[in-house]
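RECORD TYPE: inverse folding
INPUT: structure tokens
STRUCTURE:
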């Protein structure tokens, strides 16, 4: 059975890059919270209010609507804070981009993840707490500093050796 991994970090700090490297290295599959949420419900809601012409247009515009997307995911998870995580883990080994501390705490309580990897780029700004309120330093089993792709690859390779 594959390990279940959560990758967290601020917007545009390299979470998807780390997930792609892990996937290439040991074959784990992944889905970002934004992509899954857009597939499940966000696009269907926003395509009328924001006049998106396609799923891709909606998904690419997510960075301009971080707080809105965060709030929509929180509403989706209202009855069960781990709902989106469970949806992602049905088909994937890694969940990339959880944004809510409430969701994280419930997932930890239920033991949904074997490891939590924090991704942090010290050269990039931190996200507003209205769209990301997880303390990656407190909850991560590993922290990967990003910025230099060769160093990221080296660190991911080391972590992958521990995961298999």
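DESIGNED SEQUENCE:
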């Amino acid at each position: 059975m594959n390990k279940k991994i959560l990758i967290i970090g601020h917007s545009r700090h390299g979470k998807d890059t780390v997930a792609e490297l892990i996937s290439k290295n040991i074959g784990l599959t992944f889905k970002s919270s934004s992509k899954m949420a857009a597939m499940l419900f966000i696009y269907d809601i926003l395509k009328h209010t924001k006049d998106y012409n396609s799923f891709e247009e909606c998904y690419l515009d997510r960075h301009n609507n971080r707080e809105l997307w965060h709030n929509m995911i929180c509403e989706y998870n209202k009855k069960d804070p781990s709902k989106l995580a469970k949806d992602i883990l049905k088909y994937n080994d890694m969940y990339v981009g959880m944004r809510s501390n409430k969701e994280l705490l419930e997932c930890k309580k239920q033991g949904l993840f074997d490891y939590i990897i924090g991704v942090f780029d010290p050269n990039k700004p931190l996200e507003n707490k209205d769209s990301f309120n997880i303390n990656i330093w407190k909850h991560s089993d590993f922290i990967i500093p990003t910025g230099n792709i060769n160093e990221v690859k080296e660190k991911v390779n080391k972590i992958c050796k521990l995961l298999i």
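NOTES: The radius of gyration is 15 Å.
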